[in-house]
Design goal:
Shape: globular
Structural class: alpha+beta
Number of domains: 2
Strand content: 5-15%
CATH architecture of the largest domain: Roll
Order of helices and strands: EEHEEEHHHH
CATH class of the largest domain: Alpha Beta
Largest sheet: 5 strands, mixed
CATH superfamily of the largest domain: Beta-grasp domain
CATH topology of the largest domain: Ubiquitin-like (UB roll)
Distance between the termini: 29 Å
Helix content: 25-40%
Number of helices: 5
């Protein structure tokens, strides 16, 4: 099969197998920032935003993403131009090995886009389903709070 997808704002034509999962299609086409974790939808390493909603790409058939907007962590910020959420993760010490970070950043992005002033309980709820084995969750929660505070202070808004 093949189809045109919008990934990080750019049109891409992908060739893929009929039952292929979005995780593998993206990785096979160079999107290595989408991590291959558990393949069961439990760890959150493979999270992407599909029409601005976080999904575990290991659980999504590629064909079902046709016509939808796909955003990876590189779609919100890059190494040279990081998003304020990415900067907050670094500043709060919420990044260790980095394997879980793309998924955590994307679910934080989706949360703060929908709710710019979340409570700690709402942050925890949004992060549920994303596992981190290195950092623990205190610093990750602090990073989301820091990003929300910085965005509230006008340092940067979430725009598409």
């Amino acid at each position: 099969m093949d189809g045109v997808f919008t990934v990080n704002g750019k049109k891409c034509r992908f060739v893929f197998k009929a039952a292929e999962r979005l995780l593998f299609t993206l990785r096979n086409h160079g999107f290595s920032e989408v991590k291959n974790g558990c393949l069961e939808g439990e760890c959150g390493a493979c999270v992407v935003l599909l029409d601005d909603k976080p999904v575990n790409s290991c659980q999504v058939f590629t064909a079902s993403a046709l016509g939808k907007d796909i955003k990876t962590v590189k779609g919100i910020g890059t190494f040279h131009e990081p998003h304020i959420i990415q900067e907050a993760f670094v500043d709060a010490g919420a990044v260790q090995c980095g394997f879980c970070t793309p998924g955590l950043v994307l679910v934080s992005y989706a949360l703060l886009k929908e709710n710019p002033n979340p409570s700690e309980a709402e942050i925890k709820d949004a992060l549920d389903g994303n596992l981190c084995r290195c950092t623990g969750y205190v610093k990750i929660i602090e990073a989301v709070k820091l990003a929300a505070k910085r965005m509230k202070n006008g340092e940067l808004e979430i725009v598409d």
